[in-house]
Design goal:
The structure is a single chain. The N and C termini lie far apart (about 55 Å). Strand 7, helix 7 and strand 8 form a beta-alpha-beta unit. It contains eleven helices and eight strands. Helix content is about 45%, strand content about 15%. This is RNA exonuclease 4.
């Protein structure tokens, strides 16, 4: 954002100059009206507008996930998704202990960095946990247990500077274990996140959006990506650039709540067989 601010300061002078040229478009020369050529829009201005629009869209999509989760109780319907008005909690609303407490359902997502030769192996670098209403219960960067050979910032969003206040793996593991105890854990391919934390969780208390039959239909029975599910079922764009484990956790929770009844029925059938 600092680069955008500096761009605007440089652009302001250019915009004033452009405005003056527009006013003098019809200038008099030797008694004749001379038309000046139309000045094309400055390329830097176009680039800045494109970048700002992209940032606004990302912020809007991220806020929309939280807004829908927070505003609705119980099941979420397609009608609820049609309301694209973003209303985020603030002030006294955030004091609603019922909505800010961990509760029964928690969604988790992790980000990873590359370790080993060419960064081919993955190592935990961030864990985010949100509750039923999308409220952030836990969000910490984690110090990798091995030397990082590829930060994968373009996709993980993790950089070396995030390690300044990062917790140790042991701390993250212990905190996550306490949070997940006696909870329903929601996530997309959530076994990867649990494995990264070296944690186990009862199968009957896991709700994995990657395994729900209705979701798998759009990928012909294969495991669909969370990005694809969010786009298809929520009409919300995620993972447009660097991933956010908070947004991914919220997307998983929103998908679960949208099909909660059907997902619970599917899990009951599996347990009875």
């Amino acid at each position: 954002m600092s680069s955008l601010t500096s761009n605007w300061s440089r652009l302001s002078a250019k915009l004033k100059s452009s405005k003056k040229q527009k006013q003098d478009r019809h200038s008099v020369s030797h008694g004749k009206v001379k038309k000046t050529k139309k000045i094309p829009k400055n390329e830097t201005t176009l680039h800045t507008e494109i970048v700002e629009k992209a940032i606004d869209n990302v912020i809007k999509e991220e806020s929309l996930l939280f807004s829908i989760l927070w505003a609705n109780e119980g099941y979420i319907t397609q009608n609820d998704l049609q309301n694209r008005t973003i209303t985020l909690p603030s002030g006294s609303n955030l004091n609603e202990s019922r909505k800010t407490a961990p509760g029964k359902y928690l969604a988790v997502d992790c980000e990873f960095v590359g370790v080993g030769p060419e960064g081919a192996e993955s190592c935990l670098a961030r864990i985010s946990v949100v509750n039923y209403y999308g409220y952030i219960i836990y969000d910490k960067f984690v110090k990798p247990t091995e030397k990082v050979t590829d930060w994968r910032t373009w996709v993980s969003g993790v950089t070396p500077k995030h390690m300044k206040d990062a917790v140790t793996f042991r701390e993250a593991q212990e905190e996550a274990s306490k949070l997940f105890d006696n909870k329903i854990v929601v996530g997309h391919a959530v076994h990867h996140d649990l494995e990264a934390l070296f944690l186990s969780h009862p199968k009957h208390a896991i709700r994995d959006t990657s395994k729900f039959s209705e979701f798998r239909k759009i990928s012909k029975g294969k495991t669909p990506s969370l990005k694809k599910l969010a786009d298809h079922f929520l009409n919300i764009k995620i993972q447009s650039g660097e991933h956010s484990s908070i947004d991914d956790a919220r997307a998983s929770m929103l998908l679960y709540r949208l099909y909660r009844k059907e997902i619970e029925q599917q899990y009951k059938l599996k347990r009875s067989n």
